[in-house]
Amino acid sequence: MAAHSSLLSVFKIINPRWNGRIGNTVKVFGTTFTSHRNKTSLTPPPAKYGGRHTVTLIPGDGIGPELLSHVKEVFRFSCVPVDFEVVQVNSAMEGEDDIMNAITAIRRNGVALKGNIETKHTLPPSVKSRNNVLRTTLDLYANVMHCQSLPGVQTRHQNIDIMIIRENTEGEYSSLEHESVSGVVESLKIITRNNSLRIADYAFRLAREKGRRRVTAVHKANIMKLGDGLFLQCCKEVASGYPDITFDSMIVDNTTMQLVSKPQQFDVMVMPNLYGNVVSNVCAGLVGGPGLVPGANYGQDYAVFETATRNTGKSIAGKNIANPTAMLLASCMMLDHLKLYEHASSIRNAVSITMNETRLHTADLGGQGTTSEVVQSIMRVIQSKGQLTSEL
Amino acid sequence: MSPGKTIDLHLFLCCDCGRKLQVSLSPSCLFVFFDIPVVPPLFGSPLPPSTQTRLYSLCVLQPPPAKYGGRHTVTLIPGDGIGPELSGYVQELFRFCCVPVDFEVVNVDSAEDDITNAIMAIRRNGVALKGNIETNHNLPSSYKSRNNLLRTTLDLYANVIHCQSLPGVRTRHSNVDILIIRENTEGEYSSLEHENVPGVVECLKIITRSKSLRIADYAFKTAREKGRSRVTAVHKANIMKLGDGLFLECCREVASGYPEITFDSMIVDNTTMQLVSRPQQFDVMVMPNLYGNVVSNVCAGLVGGPGLVPGANYGKDYAVFETGTRNTGKSIANCNKANPTAMLLASCLLLDHVKLHAYAQIIRGAILSTLSEAQLHTADLGGHSSTSDVVQSIMDAVQSAGPRTLSM
């Protein structure tokens, strides 16, 4: 107990010096890269007034609002020094004001937690996907998803531990489509050297930071020779600067086939946008489904956390059967980003203890538990493991 | 068989039903009598509930697959990697079973002319069996993939892969039976790329109304023919609204003409996630080119790997058969370790296509009985057997199951 509180006080001493000067970039790239990045731009620190962080919260549609309210509940219960600034985005509106408000709020606060915003098919095609607009405007170029087999969740494959780094702003998601001749639609897939170098660099740095040994680039360069060929070339260039990390590449169809037969062979994977979408969903399915995996979108100045598979979950909205794990783990990633490590680990620990109890599994894991039961159990575990108020 | 020429009707694939078609040829039109329910020609009007035998007239002259003296001629393109050895086994097996098929072997090397020769041979014969031709990364990017060139030139617009759990092969998922129909000529594989600004590459993904309607129609017709009840369109129309939106719209239009078949759609990321958790929910799937590539590889992985699934590419006039996942298998070439099942099942699909159903059934039966013996599994299925052992065992099975020469 004494050791814990002394560690805490040491941590509090170090914290203010880091937060003001360096900002979020240190979090994602590691301490070795601070000087280079920060000389060129003023990176705004995440908002921290009186020791409390302010984080933008975008509830989204479907199961987003209920899960995020559970997150708020857990945070309040655990006395996490985070205040949420809630920004609603209406998916039915054609105007972009809502999402621009949300973007301004994220610029202000530096960090956000969001649910998925539905893309309504009834609106005209000029209305872009709101999630996509958010990612591209804030230049959240890296989507990081860590898929690992969780104890207590029964799956067909064991010992999976894959880190997927997906380019988040270009590729097939440029929303550039046109119909020059009626009945013939051309969609543009853009691959640029800069973005490819950037994401490859991010991938290798993250791999080095986390002690990973192998990075696999996923592509389809035998067909898209210029596009994916450029991506692959950029990855190879960056790889040459990291001799301690093995680099190889694999075509996306072979990758997905290997993933369903032997996923243990993969370590870190880096890929353009669409393949990232597919591969991350395959991996999420392998470790137990969309309700378990959190995702993070990192940019140079901002970070937005959400569930990895970005589902709205319309069919289970409001029924108290959604799995809160993914959103809670995403909030833990956010706490790590804000350097509130002890809160993050206590919530994470509580989530994994609750995951071990099969009777508390929600419907997507084959159980009958409700969302509120799971959250209650998590809070109980936090209470039992945490400090007693009498000791403070 | 009835008198008159047999006609190659690519729209009607009776791969597994084995029913005979009576055909007669008149000077101006072809009249074909079926003893199966007939699919109406264009975009679906409901099936009349009356008799099974229907008169279906085609006033179009279709090129028949070459058949001289009762023997079919089929183009064989060995390809690279494991292609040549597996094609060799196919030829050996066909000779052993006395299948009336002659192979016209066309080797495709790296030169431009070779693929033109191969295409001409396929146009001549109407049917082909091919191994995968390697696309060398070191060559300049103006050099298109040979496989792609073949598919687009011959307009083989439908790639059909039937993934089903085979008895005797242990997999994590059982009772998988998915028919994947993938658009084979457009989409992301148009090979149209340019670099207007250095460092910025634009790849064009083309979706056209006519091709989407065509593939959707093909999917629904096949589903109806095979008695399937559900077709799922796989897309990413929330992001690619115009492109995949057009594809989805075309599927919906065609679906309205097939009221007995349920139609739904699913986004590709959700589809792949559902495939790894609960693949039994899928029946027939139709999708553009790239998603088809990924989804078919996922399904192939689910049922046991690339060594087990055959694939077929159908066009209006031609059909080319190959392994479902189109691997060259360079790393296991000439090691006698490759699994011949996929190529052999592809040759059975070929036999069904040229209406040699009896032979197809014999070979297929022999393959399945060999597969159920675990000691005859090759390395990709976790066994130690060699390719030649497997082929030998298949030939033994054919011999024991077939008629004895004395009784013929």
From TrEMBL, chain A:
PROSITE patterns: IDH_IMDH (PS00470). It comes from the Eukaryota. InterPro entries: IsoCit/isopropylmalate_DH_CS (IPR019818), Isocitrate_DH_NAD (IPR004434), IsoPropMal-DH-like_dom (IPR024084). Pfam families: Iso_dh. One of its GO terms (molecular function) is oxidoreductase activity, acting on the CH-OH group of donors, NAD or NADP as acceptor. GO terms for biological process: isocitrate metabolic process; tricarboxylic acid cycle. Keywords: ATP-binding, Magnesium, Manganese, Metal-binding, Mitochondrion, Nucleotide-binding, Transit peptide, Tricarboxylic acid cycle. Its cofactor is Mg(2+); Mn(2+). SMART domains: Iso_dh. The keyword Metal-binding applies. NCBIfam families: mito_nad_idh. Heterooligomer of subunits alpha (IDH3A), beta (IDH3B), and gamma (IDH3G) in the apparent ratio of 2:1:1. The heterodimer containing one IDH3A and one IDH3B subunit and the heterodimer containing one IDH3A and one IDH3G subunit assemble into a heterotetramer (which contains two subunits of IDH3A, one of IDH3B and one of IDH3G) and further into the heterooctamer. Belongs to the isocitrate and isopropylmalate dehydrogenases family. Regulatory subunit which plays a role in the allosteric regulation of the enzyme catalyzing the decarboxylation of isocitrate (ICT) into alpha-ketoglutarate. The heterodimer composed of the alpha (IDH3A) and beta (IDH3B) subunits and the heterodimer composed of the alpha (IDH3A) and gamma (IDH3G) subunits, have considerable basal activity but the full activity of the heterotetramer (containing two subunits of IDH3A, one of IDH3B and one of IDH3G) requires the assembly and cooperative function of both heterodimers. This is Isocitrate dehydrogenase [NAD] subunit, mitochondrial. It comes from Oryzias melastigma.
